[in-house]
Each structure stands twice: as C-alpha cells, then as structure tokens.
Design a protein that fits this description.
Blueprint lengths: L20 E2 L10 E2 L4 H13 L3 H14 L4 H13 L3 H13 L5 H9 L7 H14 L4 H13 L3 H15 L2 H13 L3 H12 L6
Antiparallel strand pairs: 1-2
Helix pairs in contact: 1-2, 2-3, 3-4, 4-5, 5-6, 6-7, 7-9, 8-9, 9-10
Length: about 210
Amino acid sequence: APEPVAPVPPPLAVPLPVAPLRKSTQTDPAFDVLQPFNAADFALAYDVLLGGGDSARAFLVAQRAVRELPNDRAWRKKLAQVAEWTQRPVLATQQWSYLFQQGDHSDETVSMVIRLAFFLDNPEIALRAWQVRAQHGALTDAQWAGVFQLYESTAQPSEGSRYFEAQFQQKRMPHLLEYAARMAENAGEDARAQKLYLQRAQIEPFS
C-alpha cells in the first residue's frame, strides 16, 4: 500500500503592514490593541488604514502617536484631521489650536482655527487667528464685525481700540475707526473716544 502523504498546509496570507494595531476579538475598533510604539511603523499604519478607508483605526494610531510624541507637529496635524473625520470636533480643535499657538500660521491652520472657533474655550486664540488673516488678506465687513465682538468677549477694549485705529490707518475703512472709538469709550478713555468719533465724522458719508 502506498505510504500516506502528509497534508500540505495552505499558504500563509500576507498581512497588511499595520503592525501598530492588533485586532482583538471585539468588533468595535475602539477595542483594538495598540502594539509598542515605533514611529515608522505607526506612520505606515496610519497611511495604510486611511488609504483603506478605516478612519476609526487610523484615529487610534494618530492618537497614540501624539501621546508618544506630543511635540510632533506632523502627528498633531494628522490627529486634527482624522479627529474631525471621525466626528470629534473638540479634539480636532484642540490640535489645530496647539499648532497655531506653536507658530504654525499657515493658511490651512488659521482657516481651521477660525472655522472651529465655536469649540474653543479661549476666544483669544480665535482673535489672534483673525488678526493673522487680516495681515494677509482683506476681511469683509461682517468679518470685521466678528473681530470687534471677539475683542468685546475677551474684555480688551483698550487693546481693541488701538488695534482698530492701526488697521484704519492701513486700510482706510471708516467703520474700523468707528470700532476704535466705541472700544475707547468702553475702556473709559473718553477723551480719546471723542477724538476718534470726531475723526470718523469727517469721513464720508458723515462729512
């Protein structure tokens, strides 16, 4: 009788290079178990997961990376983006705010701080973002009104008055001078407020 032939094992499946995550028996991605941190592996895993549409697990990778490398701006940006994609606007706002306060005044970061300003617990950050935006482009009347409201909410009438006066000198927009006068009045700087109101009255359409 012929000798029995040992069964040939099936070929091993080649796993995707997502080493930072080991899938547990749970179905919720929040139960994934993160592997020991390695920057290169985590960066690769993030790209692979995001490219495959698995933003939930990509979020876990980015969150762990920021915890391990809190000063890494690239990971902060990744976490900010994937946090918003996974419906975590507060966390996204915190990351964009961190980047902005660390000196990242790129158009993308400034735009995101402004867009998510509702979730900021510090209106001064939104105010600074609008100031940066004003330095690099023109604001609409409605946007200037928003800046005025931010100065009021931060209780900085004197600083606001001088800011609007300086902006008027640069942009020659009459309503900026009116804002400067109103904030001087709010600051109790009556003489200065009167001077600014008189200056405003001499400009069209009042003169």
